[in-house]
UniProtKB/TrEMBL annotation:
It holds the Pfam family Pep_deformylase. Its EC number is 3.5.1.88. GO terms for molecular function: peptide deformylase activity. It comes from the Bacteria. This is Peptide deformylase. Belongs to the polypeptide deformylase family. Keywords: Hydrolase, Iron. The keyword Heme does not apply. It comes from Anaerobutyricum soehngenii.
Length: 136
């Protein structure tokens, strides 16, 4: 189900709670909402659709994938980026990293450990920040 985009900054600043197997409908809603907003959005966190769970959806270029309970465990090569967000107006500067390692659970709750670089790494960092209650 496509959900409206959350714009309440106080809600967005809350740290998300861990996702569980009971949250699979949220995963689907997040993927549906990302798909519906793909013209202006490449990633989304569950709090952006009003659900305070640690779930993100990321456009990998070939498909949108969901990551449950993502944690960035390593970062390399910082740089300054300028980003926008569907939940906010305008763009803002922020520090990102060229290369990251992420631990997360896939939609089957199987643990994953992946390295990402460049644009996809930047998207993941933005969405994980949402899970931490960090807004650009």
């Amino acid at each position: 189900m496509i959900r409206p985009i959350m714009r309440d900054v106080l809600f967005l600043k809350k740290k998300a709670v861990p996702a569980t197997k009971n949250d699979m409908s949220v995963v689907q809603d997040l993927l549906d909402t990302l798909k519906a907003n793909e013209a202006g959005c490449v990633g989304m966190a569950a709090n952006m659709i009003g659900v305070n769970k640690r779930i993100i959806a990321v456009n990998m270029g070939f498909a949108n994938i969901a990551m449950l309970n993502p944690m960035i465990v390593s970062k390399k090569e910082p740089y300054e980026a300028e980003e926008g967000c569907l939940s906010l107006k305008g763009v803002r500067k922020t520090t990102r990293y060229q290369e990251i390692e992420v631990e997360y659970e896939d939609i089957h709750f199987k643990k994953q450990h992946q390295k990402y670089k460049g644009w996809v790494a930047q998207i993941i960092q933005h969405e994980v920040d949402h899970c931490e209650g960090i807004i650009i």
